[in-house]
Amino acid sequence: MKGPIVAIDGPSGAGKGTVARRVSEALGYRHLDTGAMYRAVAWKALLDRLTLDDEAAVAGLAGRARMVIEGGRITIDGHDVTSAIRTPEIDRAAAAVARLPRVRQVLVRRQRAEAEAGGVVMEGRDIGTVVFPDADVKVYLDASAEERARRRAADPAHSGGTAGQAAVAEAIEARDRSDTMRAASPLTLAPDAVRIDTTGMPIEDVVETVLALVRRALRKADG
User: Fold this and answer.
1) Tell me: domain 5-221, CATH 3.40.50.300, correct?
2) Predicted local distance difference test score (pLDDT) of residue 119
3) Are the C-beta atoms of 118 and 178 separated by less than 8 Å?
4) pLDDT score of 156
5) CA angle, 217 then 207 then 119, to 5°
6) What is the pTM of this model?
7) Reported confidence tier of residue 104, pLDDT bands at 50, 70, 90
8) Based on CB atoms within 10 Å of each CB, which residue in 34, 61, 155, 197 is the most buried?
9) How, if at all, do strands 120-124 and 137-142 pair?
10) Three-state SS string across the chain, please?
11) pLDDT above 90: residue 195
């Protein structure tokens, strides 16, 4: 029997990455950050001097690129972009790439193939609604806009360590608009997902809440 698929969705700064990593470690499952795939494609598109709204060109790149996500690192066409894709510039570029339906089609196919064997914690914005609508466990992490901005401003990987909270809040608001209003796979709460508001909630408590949901699903599957 293949292991379960745990889908963790939510907006920027809600804690998806940290929670998904810790849950996957606790369960011994693979962790797949789908947002990193869009970021890597955006990074490579900029490297190749593609216009980010050229859907055919970016989708072609996404389809032929060699991407490896393993052990918290990501490479694309031999380039280790683990750190390079965590910048405000790539935040914006990834949002532009994520709006392209053909790019999403290509990457959704890749994501499904990556999780074919199960036993995976997959984080993103459309995992429980589009990529795996029948996921064994669906979680939607959220937090207040102020809390999310505070977290991102304190995270050098995203803010560069220099952006003030007001600037980060503005960037997050723009990303929220892009994610929720795009025509292809918008960010939304799946009807059967468990929403967890992480505002002021210790990360350990969030992780334990998700683990409890997974254990309940496993008990149910065992009959």
Assistant:
1) yes
2) 95
3) no
4) 66
5) 45
6) 0.90
7) very high
8) 34
9) unpaired
10) CCCCEEEEECCCCCCHHHHHHHHHHHHCCEEEEHHHHHHHHHHHHHHCCCCCCCHHHHHHHHHHCCEEEECCEEEECCEECCCCCCCHHHHHHHHHHHCCHHHHHHHHHHHHHHCCCCCEEEEECCHHHHHCCCCCEEEEEECCHHHHHHHHHCCHHHHCCCCCHHHHHHHHHHHHHHHHHCCCCCCCCCCCCEEEECCCCCHHHHHHHHHHHHHHHHHHHCC
11) yes
pLDDT at 151: 85
User: CA nearest 214: which of 7, 70, 71?
Assistant: 7
Instruction: Tell me the pLDDT tens digit for each residue of 118-147.
Output: 999 999 999 999 999 999 999 999 999 889
